[in-house]
Each structure stands twice: as structure tokens, then as C-alpha cells.
Amino acid sequence: MSKAHPKKKESSSSKVSLSDRQTEAASLAATSSESLGGVGKYRVPIWPEWNDADVNREKWDSNRGPEDGKPTKSPSAPFFEDPEGKLLLPQCLKVHTWKRPAEFIVDKTPTVVDNQMTFDLVSPNCHLLCSELMRWIVSGIHILWMQFNCPSTEHEGWRPWGHIYSMCKVVNGHVPLFNSYGKYIIRLYWMGCWRKILVDDFMPFDEDNNLLLPASTCQSELWPMLLAKALIKVANTNLSDVCGGMDQFTFIHTLTSWIPETRPIKSVYLREIWDFLQHSIPTFKHLDDSLPVTKPEPTDAAQVKDSTLSSSKNQLLESEQCKADPDIVVCAACYPFQLHNGSFGFRQMANSSEFLRRYGLSLLHSHAVLLTRTRACPLESPPKPPPVPRWKLIRQPKEILVTAEPKKIPLSKPEQFIEVASPFLSYRTRSSGGSVPEPETKQNTPRKCSHRSPLVSITEEEETEYQEGLELDAAECTTNSPNCTDKMEVTAEDKKNSDDISNDRPQTEIKEPVTEESYYATNKPVLQKTWVDLEDFDKCFQTLLVFHKPQTYQHHIQKSHFKNTVLSKTTVAVKCSGSSTQTLSSGSLAVASPEQCPEVRGTYYLCVDSLQPSQILISFSSLLLWGHAAEEKQEMSAARRSAVLIAVPHSWTSLQSQLPVLSIKTTSTKAAVLNLPSGRHVLCIHINAALGYHVHLCSKTPFIFGEEETIMPHLTKESAHFTEQASSIFRALSRLVASFSDKQQQPALRKGLEETHCPRNISTTQEKWEHCKVFNLAVYHMLREALGRKLKADEQFAVQALTADPSLFPEEYPPIYLEPPEMWRDREPTDREVKAVTVLQAGFRGHLVREILDASKPGTKENLNASKILSSVWSTIESDAHKHAAFLLRHIINNSKRKADLYPCLRDESTKIAFADYTVSLPDTANSWVLVFREIFLVSEEMLVIPKVYSPLPNCLLHVINNDTGEEVNTVFNRVAPHVYQPNKLGYTFVAEAITPELPPSGAKWRMCLIGSKEPLPKLSRDTPVSEFSVEEFRDYYIPNNKNLICCYRVHVTTDTVATVQLQTSHPDVLIRLSILDHEKQVAGKTGKGHVVIPVFFFLVNKDTEENKQEQSPSENTLQQNEGEDSAVKKSISSSDQYQPPTETMVSLTTVCVVHKYVVQAEVLYKTWNLSESQLAFACSVKDLENNETRVNKLEDVKRSSTTSTPNRDGLKSDATKTQRKTKGDKGKPAVANETSLDLTKPNWMLRVVTDNSKAKGIDVKRDTERIDQIKAIKKAWEMAEPGRSAKAFQSRLHFLKQVQQKECGDAATEENNDASRPGQDISQSASNQKLTDTPCSFPHMDYSHFTRHQKDSPVVMDSYIEEAQQRERTEKIQTYRLVREHVLECRKQEAFKRKELMKCQLEMYQNMQAAFEQRCKNFHNTCEAFNSRHRASIKKEQEEKEALEEAQSAALEKQAAFTSASAQPPNKQDKKAGKKK
What is the pLDDT of residue 51? Predict the structure, then answer.
């Protein structure tokens, strides 16, 4: 592809001062901050989502984007600067200056891409490899280059500069051009989508003029630096980089969008890791016999170049051919250990460092390595055995090898090796003779978060000279790359080029174009390979990085949420007819500083329903830092914790908590695989992050992920296992109906149907027979449900023939009773007649059974008729087969005795729910208590129901009251617990109360969801719920009294009314008892602290009005009221919180009391409302004011002939009753009259009575003044009986007070005369005494004897007899008390003795238990010792037997050898004898 080289930028553009650039960058940052509203010091926009059209319209010579229209260049900004400011580099890389390409590339024209065939980012960047961030960038780019550009890849490979856009359009295979303005766009994947990231061309340099960003060997190329700047930007959002480690952050995910799954590498998981790698990456295999044998790897450096091309060609023959697009890519990583790991961590660090050096790696240069192949065989194929002659194969003799010692069978170690590829393999030994780059632990710059041990670096430096040769040999022996011996020459050349770039003196080179065919023959691959033993794999690496490619999954769902965002993005991708459809909604996202709002939390639900085990890949990305400086990142890294995702099994019908099945904790991006067995599963996923999060779920199995509103409708349907079980039964039944008259197929089909519907766990014949009866009845009900009517006689006969069950006669068909003839009406049948009738009935029944059995057998006439009837009926059923199959199986389950373990599909029944929503509008009242919802629900059958409330108000509470018993359903953490509701007469009342904030949400909705395990759910008593109520409020000051009463109000109703009563006090810590009395008997009551509510109470109207006239006389009422007033308070205090059921109240009052007298009373418990001195003085003044008003009213009553009612103080209630009750348009707002006249800083209370708007006029609530009215009635009666009595009594009282006042005045005058003679008397004291004379302080002596009530008419003289009698009485009382006391003491002694005996018995029991336990332990130990001794004896015996056998074998061998030697000796002797004879 041709490239257009832009003209060289003028030198003036590179001579702008650094201060001017910083000023311009600051102004740009300020402009960016102002565009977002100026909220927060660190608020900057999040990188926008990638859009091809926006990039194509980008203005490359302007600081503005495509949305700004025409560019307007400013003479003060001749080049582009990043609005986000200068790049933040790791601490080990100290930036001294920033330069543009024209400043450090002077001999060549800067280009973005120069060599498109190959690149090397290792050799020219030795001074950067002390940074772990740079090593991960370099290794990630090289791994992707090797993965996409292997020789077997047919499609176009991945190009790192393909992420860079500059002065080009978005097309495939584009090449970015050099932009003299310095504006570049990088396309990277971050937080769930591809992002558009702007970078400039300012490059950092240190004090030695070394470039601090990766560069390639081609000195004019800019793509490594530009790409690295964008990657470091993304990495700066990760907290782990601040602390000196990469943690879970990977650049491969950022460059490819592959989902990174992190798996720990431990010795206990080696077997699983080996199995996983064998199925995930290619496997090394030897050549077949038909293929030429691969030559061994050359060791001489001169032979490397010649063998490079041949080895690359034979690579496909040695291993399985690479997939064109593998599903996953597997890498391994070793992270440096930190100081806080302790001694165990140091030991692991030492072991890991030692094993890594064996394979040419270093712990100080931690990075990611690519796993390319696995090997379970030797590298070289074993030599073939020499051919054996055919004559030796006829009868081969057994080879016997005689040894002095017993031969032990050697245990061969299995060949298990993993090939790893790394750009830093044998990096220290491959370095040239120049200076070795210092590791990060040897830097002199200060580091706050670096915790690496200096011992490791010292060990590495000390062993460099000794280990250099060993590492080189190990690398040559273990490295599989053919070019490993050529690394010294290439590294020196790369180092030279790197030095030229850093010194700003580049040398021009003329390179010829390199073709892809000659690439492997002329260029050394940067990634070197070596084989690592599986046993050493866990010691070298700590983490396995598995990158999943999202395009290999058919089903995707993504959820994102950021703090203070304009629009949250949700991406849903579901495979539809072979293609994936995605819907994206994006907006301009902006994040505020973390101090402004709390952490971001989210709750989602996952539903998986599959017939096969499913795997769901969950990727979790978190945003913890954004737009912070280096110092602020250091501070926040200590306080900010990692984001957490937890998946827990969830059930709406249970409060039982379960353990999490998946937990992900990360600071960047991390993924995990959730393995679920077959069936339906519901999980609740809780997410907690600092600034934002993104969740991506991928699976090859369909699933549902979202809010409750998304998941719950799917759970109302039957599960997949249930549907499959029902469909299999229905299909078997349909096949039987279709072949009902076929002699050959019907028996097999009937047997198959029985095997399908009969559970496997039924073993006995009785249980099997009972289940068949249930199935036959279910078939009948399914046919009836499908037809929508009762079956006819012929249809019933056909069903009985189909099920082969003559006894199938449902209860819907009762026996028919015919009227007997006249001759049989008035007489009893004889025994003979009864017997004859019985015989006839048995005969008819036998005939019917025989007909049904004949009809069930193919080939008969009845069978053909039944088959025709079933075929005609079955066509109607098959029209909706899914519905009828589910009905059939559900009927079997509901009528079976063994419901729990009947079918495997019943395990999914716990996830099946039914729900109903009820929504009302919230009132607009501010900072007040409101009644939100109050409705009655009727329950027809026993059911499990869980009410769940969704309210924008945080302080919302739901009550559920049983109207029959008055009991309230228990709550757990202020939520109604799951409860089994029993059917009743009056239903259940659901009452919701809430406290509105100062700024209530306008137009908000309150929603209640009733969730049950099955249909039907509780039914609302009316069509729609009501959200508007009438509220009567009463507010007044609290006045302490002896009875501790707060208020007392009388309620009178003209119709039956349902009301809610609420009381709250100004002091929140007051214990209150709110009671409703009927005829001084408590019928409802509840206790609270500062706030108490009686959720619902039924005020009943007086039933019998005629009996109301027969009231008691006023005097009798007065006496009863005086006697019952104190007892009412005591009963209310001592009574329990149990709500008296309205039904019992109604019955008792209609039969006994007839007239209801309801009183709402509130009292203070345990004297918890303590007033200060000022508050107490205010209460006394209010009480005195009330008494004065009462006295004035009494004087007015005396003057007037006719008495009037005393004005009462109804808690500052308005006089106009109509203004207190709300109409429908008021939306339940309470009416409080004269609120301004009540000082809310003083102790006060408020009483609310809430009723329906339709019943507002039928209830009247007034202050209870019955006692005052009775007193007035008594005085009125006295006045009527004796006219003028009240006036005389008043005059007599005034006369008495006048006399007392005159006497006090005379005494005061005498004292004044005496005091005037004393010198130095204060004048103010006389004035005060004058004041005291105005009030009566003492009273004259009066004779009260005539008021004394005598016990006897005449006095009795106290004599000795009376004294003795009294003495005897006192003695008897004392003696009785002593006897009682002695008896009590004796009882206490006996109780103490019994307690001691009990303690003694318990102690003995515990001792016996301990002794028994010790005895059992002793017996167990003895048994174990005996077993061990027997085992050792058996082992010893086996060894002895084995030794004896070996001795016998050796003896036999000796004998055989002796025999052989003996047999060979005689011929020699005979020969000698023969020679002698000759």
C-alpha cells in the first residue's frame, strides 16, 4: 500500500515556548470544564464512543471536532495540544522535557508508519524496560502481532497502527499519515465499547535525552509512541498502576476487545490447567511415517539462517495446524511480589525467580507471555527398533536377566510441557556488551508505592557473571526458535539505532521492500519460544489470562452505568436468524469528582433456563479514577477500594440467604465463567463501584439479564424442563391416539407412554397403580378443558378405552336416581330382591368393563369406533398442544402424593412465580406523615404471598392486617415477611404509610407487587385502588398530668367506617401507647416511640337506635364514670398490643352494649416525656389559662338561666368542620387549622384520623368532654330542684373569702407597724409584703367535727377487756405472719436444695458423658492401633514372602546355572579321554 509523505513542518511550529503551551492547555481544560457546567474541580468528559462518520468529518488542522463546524485557527495555537493535559508516566520514568517530532527527528521526514512488514519494540527500548507498564505494552503488541500474523492465517492480520487515525478516512487497511498540526485519534476499547481518544505529538524525554515512550527500530516512525500514549491514558484509570503493578489490567483487552478471564495458577489446579490447555491451544505431535522426518534444531550459529525457512515450513507438520480464528487466546503472567506479603511471599519470590531464570526469564521483568502449544511427547521421535528376522518371530525365547539385586521397575515421568513465547526471553543474556538497564528496584528516584525487595536485585547482579553462561546454555537447549543464537548481533544493531534516536542524530537507511514470503527467511521473530515443564509452570507464573473473543458467542447483553451521567448506555445483542443485532444508545457522559456523590451501586437479575449445562462469561469493568493528578491518585488509591460484583442465587418467595456462586473483585477489567447445571436458575447480581461500571455477559445459551421488571414476566411461564417433560408425555399420548387401531404398534406405544409418564423412582406396584389412576384422570380433565364442556357418553367411553381404565368415572357425573314404580314405593325390598338387583348390577358392570377392554384392543369394532371419536377430538387438542400438555402435567403433579420427587423438572418450581402490580400516586405534601395505600384483599385459598414495595420515598412502611383476627403479619427489617395467607371472611388489609421529605418528588408513583408461587393471587375488593384520603388533624401542647394522658378524643360514626389513626410527638424518644376504647374496654392498641400508628380499625355504627333512648340517669352515669375512669387507664396500660378483631367487637357490642362509645386515647409510658423547667413552666401557664377559661364560663353559667355548652379546646382544630375534610381534588392533603398559633418549639403532639373520602362525612371526632358535661348536668339538676342554690353557694363562698381577706389585712397592718420602728428596713420589702396581702395565705380555725363520720352511735370507754382483745388480735396476726414467713423460708430452702441436687445431677451426667467419650476415644485408638499392627504385620509378612520367593528364585537360578555348567562339563572330559586313548 502506498503512503503519502506530508511536507515537513516549519521550524517555527516547534519553537513555541513551554510556558505558552501550558497556558494554552490550561485554557483548553478550563473551556472543557465550563462546557460541563463547571461542577467539580476534576470534572472532564469521558472519551466518546467511536463513530466512523464523526472521524471522517474530523478537522485535522483544528482544535475543534466535527460538531464545531468550520475551523478557526488562532495564531497563538499553531499546533494541537491534548485538552486533558500532559501524560502521566510511571514514577520510574522522570520527564524532563516534551518535544515534538520535528525537534528530535531532523534528518528524516517524520512518518506514522514506515515498515508495514515487521517491527521490533524490544531492542531500541532497553532504557524503558525498567517500567512494568512499558513491558506490558511491548509484550501485548508483540503477542497480538504474532497471533494475527502467523503464516497459517489466511485473512489480513492485525496491524497496531490500524488503531491510529490521522488525515485519513475510516476504511479497512488504512494507513495513518503524519499530521504537522499534531492531532491524532486513537481507537481503543474501554468500558464496554470502542472509544475515540485524542492525543497530541508531544513526546517526553528524560535528562539524558532518552525518549520515554516505546519506539521501533525505524527512527522516523511515530505509531509506537502515539499508540503508547493512548494506552497509558487508559491505564491511568486503573488504581493498580499507581501502586506499581498491573493487577488485572491488560492491553490486549484494550486493543482487541477480547474479554480477559483471570485464573489462578496453583499446584492443586495443575491437572485442570493441563486439561484446559490441551483443549484450547494446539498440541505438538510427531510426523507420520509418510512424512519426512524433521531435522533436529541446529546449534551452530552459522546453520541458523539456512534452517530458518525449512523449520518455519515444517512447523505445521510438527503441531496441529493453527486455527484461522481461534476462540480463545491463552497467556500467562508473573507478577512481582510485594514486601507486605511476609516471609512466605519472599520464599515464593525466591523460588519463582530461580525457576524463571532456568527458562531464560526474569522475575524483575514481569510481563505477559503467550502460550502457543502443549507437548505430551518427546521433542524427537524415538528411533525405530531394528527389524527382527522372520524366523525369530516364530517362537521367541524368554529373556532372563540375572541381577544381584531385585530389579525395580522405574516409574517414567510423563512428558507434559507448555510452550511459551515472550519478547524478553533470555533478555539479560541477549543484551550486548553495553550497559545493562537497571531494574526498577535499582532506580534512585523516590517511589511511594514500590514494595519490591532489594534482595532480589542484589542476587541477580551478583549471579550475573556466573549465570550468564548457564542461562545462555539453558536458552539454547530449551528454546524452540531457530534464531535464538543470532540474538547478540541483532540486539547490538537495535541498540545502535536506539542510541541514534535518543541522541537526535539518526542515520538514514535505504530499505528495500520486504515481501511476506521472505519475512521468515530474512527477519528474526521477536517472540522467542521455550518449553516449560508442567511441574515448574505454577512456580514460574501466578496467573493464567484467557482471552475470549466475543464474536464467538451468540448471545450478548451489556449494562453500563456511570456517576452523574446524562444517559446510561445499554447494549443488547441477541442472535436472530444467524446474525447479531445490536442497539446502542449513547450520550455525552461526564463524571464528577468522587466527593460529590457516593459510590455507584446496581442490582440486576440473571435468568438462565436450559436443558443442557450452560456457561456464561461475565466481564466486569470498573471506573475508579478519572481526571486526577498524580498526587491525588496516590491519595485516592489508599482510600478507594476495588469494585465488586457478587452473584447470589435469588428467590422472591424466600428470605433465606444463600452463599455467593460468583465473586469478581477488580480495579479495571476482569472476567469469570459461571457454570450452571441444566434447569432454570435465577441469580441476583450486586455491583458496587466508585465512579462507574460496565457488565458484559456472553453465552452460547440463551439467557435474560436486566431489572426485576425484565426478569419476572419470564418466571411466570413454565420452565424448559417442565415444558420438555410435558411435551414428551403429550407426544407419546398423541402417537398412541394416532395408532390406536394398529395391532403392531399399539402395544409398544402404550408401553412407551407408560415409561414416559411414570416416574423412575416409583418401584412398588401399588405406587405405580396409583400414579396410573392419576394420569388417567388427568387425561380426562385435559380433554374436558380442551373441549370446554362435559364429555358425552361415547366420548367418555373412548377415553376409558384409551386409558384402559373401566373405573374412570369422575365425580362430575353423579349416579342417576330414577323414581321407583308405585308398587315399590311403600315397601321394603326383600333380601332376595336385593340380591337379584346386585347380580344384575354386577352383570351390567361386567359387560361394560368387557366392552371397554375390547375397545382398547385393536381389531375390534368397539376399537374402531373409539379410534374415530378420539381422532375427531384430538384435532381440537393439537391446535394448542403446548397449553394442553402443560395442563396435563400440572394436573398430574397437583394430584399426586409424591410431589417433591415426582419428576426432575420439579426442581425448577422454586423459581416459578406469579405477580400482580398495584400503583397509586404519591401526595405532594412536604415533610409530613401521609397514608399512601389502604386496600382490602380477599384470599380464596391458601397461598404464599410476598408483598414488595417500590417507592421513591425512603421512609415507607407496609402493614398487613388480618381483618378476622386483627393480627398483623410479621415483618423482617421493616419488610413484610413471606407468609402463607389462609382464606378468611373479611380479607386482609394492606396499609402503606410514608414520611415525605422537604422536597417531595412531583408526580411520583408508589407501586406494590404481590408475588406468589402460583395463581390465583389475593384479589382486590374493588376495581381500582384509592390514593386520596380524608385526613383530620388535631395538634396541641403536651400538659403533664397524674394519669400520663396525652390526649383523649371521642369518635362518633353514622356509617361503618374504616380509619387509620396516627399520633406523633415533638420529642422522638417518647414511649407512647395509642389505644381505641369502646365502653372503656380496649379493642385496639399499639405502642411506639415518638410515632405510633394503628393501621386499620373498623368503627361500627349503632345498630339498634330504639334502645338508645333507654339510657341511664345522669347520676348513675356519673357514678359509673367516676368508678371506671381510673380503671380504663390501668387496663390500657396493662393490656397487650393484640388488636381485638372487629368481628368479635361487632358481635359483642350488638348483643350486649348496643351503643358504641369509641374513644381514641394516647398516654405516655414509663414517664419518658421529661420536660425541662422552661417547658414545665410553659405547660403550667397553659393549664392555668385553661382553668381560668373554665371559671369564667362557670360565672357566665350562673348569670344565665339556661346553661350552654362550655367551649372546648379540640387541639386547635378549626371551627369549620368542612375545611378539615378533604375532597377528591385535595389528593389527601391534611388540613391543619391555626398552625401559626402553635409554637412548635414547645412540647406538642399531633393526632391524625384518616378515612376514605366517601366516608368523610360519616365520622365525627371531638375532644372527650363527657366528664365535664356530666358535672354540668348534675349542677343543672340541683339548680332545677332548688332554684337559686348556685347563687347562694357562690355568695357564701365570696363572703367567706372576704372574711379571710380582712383578717389577713389586719395582721399585715400590725406587722407593718412593728417593722416601721426597726431601722434600716428596706422599702421594697414592704412593697412585697403588700403584694402578699392581696392573696389569702392562711385560714381561720374552723370546726370540722360535724363533717366526721362516726363508726358507732355512742362512744365506748377503752377498758382492760377491750385492750386484751386487741392484744390477742395483734398477737394472732403476728403469729400468722410468722407461720407464713416460716413456710415461705422452708419452701425457699427446699427449692435451693432441689437446685443443688439438679446441679449435682447435671455435673454427674456431664462427668459420665465425658468418661464415656474418653472410653470411646480409647476404644477407637485401640482399634486403630490394632488395625495398624495387623496392617504392619501383613506388610511385613508380604515382604518376607516376597524375599522368600526371591531367594527361591535365586536358588533355582543357581541350581539351573549349576546344572547347565555340569551338563556342559562331561563332553569335555570325554573328549580328553578320547584324546588320551589316541
Answer: 92
